[in-house]
Design a protein that fits this description.
Elements lengths: L5 H4 E12 L3 E4 L3 E2 L5 E8 L3 E14 L7 E7 L3 E2 L5 E8 L9 E24 L14 E4 L2
Antiparallel strand pairs: 1-9, 2-9, 3-9, 4-8, 4-9, 5-6, 5-7, 5-9, 8-10
């Protein structure tokens, strides 16, 4: 797993604004222009969900113009995260060269499944430049940890 931290050498852009969702479905974040970034990261916070077997899946999507034609970025989707009694932090990093040519925007997306009565969510997209000490990544290395 990469030790790359976009907050140290780039920008962290709020994409999926903090909210408490009260039903299952898809929540799309705001578009973030990739520009010349080498690394794209997804950093999400998932609060304690309530309902009947609620789950959350986070992913990145890309688009050429930032308003239409959104498609999932290959390998940039978490497994379904089940209900838990603690808040969780989700992190992953991807080499921007793995985006489809011409895709200049990305956004965070959260897909809520099961029966959801409350799911606190938010996500940021980090962008940063090249670091020659890191290797080319084919897919995200996602980690889900309990929030401190």
């Amino acid at each position: 797993m990469s030790t790359h931290d976009p907050r140290a050498h780039g920008s962290l852009n709020l994409s999926l604004r903090p909210s408490v969702q009260t039903s299952a479905g898809t929540v799309n974040g705001d578009a973030v222009k990739v520009n010349t970034a080498r690394w794209i990261s997804l950093e999400a916070v998932l609060g304690v969900m309530t309902g009947t077997a609620p789950t959350a899946t986070f992913k990145l999507q890309s688009s050429a113009d930032g308003s239409s034609g959104w498609a999932d970025v290959a390998g940039a989707t978490t497994a379904a995260i089940p209900e838990a009694t603690d808040d969780r932090i989700v992190r992953g990093t991807l080499d921007a060269r793995k985006l489809t040519v011409g895709q200049e925007y990305v956004r965070a997306v959260c897909v809520l499944g099961g029966t959801v009565t409350a799911a606190p969510i938010c996500a940021s997209v980090g962008l940063s430049g090249a670091d020659s000490s890191e290797t080319l990544k084919q897919t995200f290395d996602f980690e889900v940890v309990t929030a401190p």
